[in-house]
Amino acid sequence: MICINTGNHMDVMVNIEQASQDELLQAQRQLEQEYAKLAALNLSLDLTRGKPGPEQVALSDALDGILGGNYIDADGVDTRNYGGLQGLREARELFAPVLGADPENLMIGGNSSLSLMYAVVECALNIGLCGSAWSSQLDKPGAIKFICPVPGYDRHFAICEHLGITMLPVAMTDSGPDMDAVEHLLATEPGIRGMWCVPRFSNPDGVVYSEQTVQRIARLGQIAHDSFLVLWDNAYAVHSFDDDAAELPSISAYCDALKTQDQVVQFGSTSKVTFAGAGVAFLASGERTRTNLSKHLGYSSIGPDKVNQLRHVRLLRDAEGLGAHMRKHAALIAPRFACLQRELAAGLGGSGMGHWTEPGGGYFVSFDSLPGLAKEIVELAATIGVKLTPAGATWPYGKDPENSNIRLAPTFATLPELEAAVQAFVCCVKLASIRQRLARA
Amino acid sequence: MICINTGNHMDVMVNIEQASQDELLQAQRQLEQEYAKLAALNLSLDLTRGKPGPEQVALSDALDGILGGNYIDADGVDTRNYGGLQGLREARELFAPVLGADPENLMIGGNSSLSLMYAVVECALNIGLCGSAWSSQLDKPGAIKFICPVPGYDRHFAICEHLGITMLPVAMTDSGPDMDAVEHLLATEPGIRGMWCVPRFSNPDGVVYSEQTVQRIARLGQIAHDSFLVLWDNAYAVHSFDDDAAELPSISAYCDALKTQDQVVQFGSTSKVTFAGAGVAFLASGERTRTNLSKHLGYSSIGPDKVNQLRHVRLLRDAEGLGAHMRKHAALIAPRFACLQRELAAGLGGSGMGHWTEPGGGYFVSFDSLPGLAKEIVELAATIGVKLTPAGATWPYGKDPENSNIRLAPTFATLPELEAAVQAFVCCVKLASIRQRLARA
Q1: Does the CB of A303 have a partner CB in chain B at under 8 Å?
Q2: CA-to-CA dists, residue B215 to A403, B205, B253, B255, B275, angstroms
Q3: How high is the mean pLDDT of chain A?
Q4: Residues of B in contact with A67 (CB under 8 A)
Q5: Is A68 close to B69, i.e. CB distance below 8 A?
Q6: Model confidence over B284-324: pLDDT tens digits?
Q7: Rounded to an integer, what distance in angstroms lies between the CA atom of residue A135 and that of residue A127?
Q8: What pTM value is reported for the model?
Q9: DSSP string spanning A152-176?
Q10: Residue A158 CB partners (closer than 8 Å, separation 6+)
């Protein structure tokens, strides 16, 4: 571990609403000094992306050699040869509980759930997945629309932008997307064909959708267009910091009852379970959607890597094995989130200069500065060697209307690096906030 | 190995052009008897697909455990974490010579070159790869066209059909596609935007494109539309039966001289080197095309499986290691091709009932029956338990105008299975040929 000493970390505690002009000016001077000292440290810290740390990926080092030369699965399939578009039965049985779905409703993909999501959206758009191709229904540019809870995941938004799909933001609440707003949009706005969801430990808010929210989302297939799809990206399904974290109700159960199975596609992966980029991705949906998708994927693939599926089956074994493995991740991640929370509270608690989430799992803390400051804070941090996710990234088209949301990702850094990065971040937030206040005074 | 005794294999030797009506009738009776005996054996044999056999895939069993727990590549990249859309440098250096390309012009993909081909065509069609999107240039259904040498690979044709691309067949010659016909088509037919090629040991003919053919194909970018792409599927680049097999000249060298690098995309994979479906795929092209493709793939992937790339680097090491590995494959494959040639010659030599290729590498023998008989032969064989590639599969839309081409794939079967399958095939060819002759008499 690199030990980083940020020097005399000064305790500049003012409440931006209550401080006098003089107090603000004094605080600003102190912060400018602190900022200059941080700049002199030539920091090189990175809180941009939700990457597991080296100790986390090392938890799965046993994958190399785990087959002991036995490449045949429990059904006698030689995983070294072609075929098997749906994935090994053993792998489907292992991963189905992660999504709360039946193994027969699962398909295993390659190394990336993002690739599966792209394939689903692209197929629904140009070929037809659950009903006819969206592009054949709506051929005016921008006429096809997706509901996007905000703040959200930049790679979801990038898929829409790349494929010419118009994004309609809907606010997140403590229980998931604002479902009144979602239902209102579906009733009033033409052309809506999809909705992104990260239902457990949402990216970046860390919200776990409530039972009522899950139920209402499962019902959308009844009130939306027949070809409407919910993209249910359950990326952090088993990624809680402790066993007390809020559970996510299975959307499959509700979809079965409501006959909307084909309009919800669930995604998961082991990118943050085993190796990021060398894991196994999977999806679950109703039979019609799965059959159509399988047919579509059959044009571009003879089947995903079955050897890697078998490695994962041998390493993780079952739900219990997976749970034990995830507790090891939690033991590495939880202290980092605790450090982040501690430093934010110590530096900004009671300051009125921002608020942030305290998730029970996932990979992010969502920070909201005072309106209009996110870009400046990210620039201030970049200047002194602390990389943050670009301001706006959590919004469609990179446009955060309040210019206030910043996603913090504490998992990859070491604890000393993280501590230093957050202290620098706090300094930038304070400096930007007080400068703004003084400029307006 | 399963030992299959097809019983009293009868030597029905007639030349279909020279035999008298009586001789044909007698031969037909004998063949009906032989066919009935074969039917009674309840054979279950499969010559459909170019699958490596179990002994072949076992040549790479050392991949499991080969890292010895060291997941860091020569450049210090932790292959267990995200990133690396272009692929590891070590992997690009290993595979570049396979395509006769520079490592910096390579991109490593996932487990399937077919997926890379699909991504290239789909991107060029809907997004724009080498120039603007084909769909924006030509929006009438079927207006976008590909040149397809025939007989060819069914999965190439399926991609075109799935994406609504019209296929224009061009005959294969001993030196590759009929280039006069190709150049004439480009000069006279509007809307041509691509051409499929399997340049070494073509599927199914086993032809190695000549130097002149390679040169003329490299020049197509100068005479075709700016956004025209050659899809150069070098699937059997290192898959010769012995060291005397014809070499393929590097198309990269010609493209560099002619400034057409961006209009040729070369593909390769280790599907038939290590594990089929758990190997590494790669492509090479010019900088503009690669940059655009990389940008496009970046929307659907954070990067391919780098751990598997590293496994391959450690197993195959370099061009020499790869060559030694491929000679082990040849030692397993060559006897199967020899068996196939021997049985075809013994059963059909001098009969006038068909002709076939004698490739120096690859995975297929291309058989041409008398016109109008391929479907019947495939059905006759299926009835007695010998699965063949569907007749017509080697032609666009599954429509072989002569109904004569059948692709034979001898690699997966054991030698006794293969011998039995080819003897049964020979019986079906003779029976169908003589029945046709007698019906016309």
Answers
A1: yes
A2: 56, 20, 9, 8, 33
A3: 96
A4: 64-65
A5: no
A6: 999 999 999 999 999 999 999 999 999 999 999 999 999 99
A7: 8
A8: 0.96
A9: --HHHHHHHHHTT-EEEEEEEETTE
A10: B299
Residues A37-75: tens digit of each pLDDT: 999 999 999 999 899 999 999 999 999 999 999 999 999
- The set of residues, in sequence order, having a beta carbon less than 8 Å from that of A164 and lying 6+ positions away, is A141, A142, A144
Is B220 in contact with B71 (CB distance < 8 Å)? Answer: no
* Average pLDDT estimate for A200-210: 98
Contact between A148 and A170 under an 8 Å Cβ cutoff? The reply is yes
At A281-331, the pLDDT tens digits run 999 999 999 999 999 999 999 999 999 999 999 999 999 999 999 999 999
Cα–Cα distance measured from residue B179 to residue B172, given in angstroms and rounded to the nearest whole number: 9
Chain B CA closest to residue A306? B278
Say how far apart CA A342 and CA A415 lie, in whole Å: 12
Phi, psi at A246, each rounded to 5°: -60, 135
Residue with tokens 């019902």: A219
Q: Looking at residue A441, what is its pLDDT?
A: 79
The residues pairing with A407 across neighbouring beta strands, listed in sequence order, are: A366
Contacts for A160 with CB less than 8 Å, ≥ 6 apart:
A121, A146, A148, A166, A167, A396
For residue A197, the SS3 value is strand
User: Helix (H, G, I), strand (E, B), or coil: what is residue A35?
Assistant: helix
Token readout for A2 is: 């690199």
Q: Among partner residues A67, A71, A278, which is closest to B308 by beta-carbon distance? A: A278
Residue B135 three-state SS:
helix
Distance of CA B36 to the CA centre of its chain: 34
Spans of chain B, pLDDT less than 50: 1-8
Residue B23's CB: how many other CB atoms inside 10 A?
A: 15
Give how far B279 is from chain A: nearest CA, Å.
8
pLDDT tens digits for range A112-129: 999 999 999 999 999 999
Determine the pLDDT at residue B49.
86
Token look-up 């102190």 returns: A30
Contact A352, A15 (CB under 8 A): yes
A438/chain B closest Cα distance in angstroms: 42
Angle at A251 between CA A269 and CA A163, to 5 degrees: 60
Q: Phi and psi for A209 in degrees, rounded to 5?
A: -60, 140
Residue A206, pLDDT above cutoff 70 = yes
Chain B residues within an 8 Å CB radius of A273: none
Q: How far is A69 from chain B (nearest CA, A)?
A: 6
Tokens of A169: 């933001």
A227, A129 contact by CB (below 8 A): yes
What's the pLDDT at B8?
Answer: 43
Q: Are strands B176-177 and B166-173 parallel, antiparallel or unpaired?
A: antiparallel
Buried b or exposed e, range A359-370, using 16+ CB within 10 angstroms: bbbbbbbbbbbb
Residue A2 has pLDDT above 60, yes or no: no
**How many helices, marked H, and strands, marked E, lie in chain A?**
14, 13
Tell me: cis bond preceding B204? Omega within 30 of 0 counts: yes
Q: Which two tokens stand for residue B113?
A: 């070159």
Which domains does chain A possess? 21-56+324-440 (3.90.1150.10), 74-317 (3.40.640.10)
Phi, psi of A284 (to 5 degrees): -135, 140
Are A91 and A280 a contacting pair, CB within 8 Å?
Answer: yes
What is the ipTM metric for this complex? 0.96
Tell me the C-alpha distance between B191 and A324, whole Å: 58
Answer whether the bond into residue B151 is a cis peptide, omega within 30°.
Answer: yes
Residues contacting residue B31 through CB under 8 Å, at least 6 positions apart = B10, B12, B427, B430, B431, B434
Q: What is the pLDDT of residues A150-182, one digit of tens each?
A: 999 999 999 999 999 999 999 999 999 999 999
In the structure, what pLDDT confidence band is assigned to residue A13 with cuts at 50, 70 and 90? confident
Helix (H, G, I), strand (E, B) or coil at B430: helix
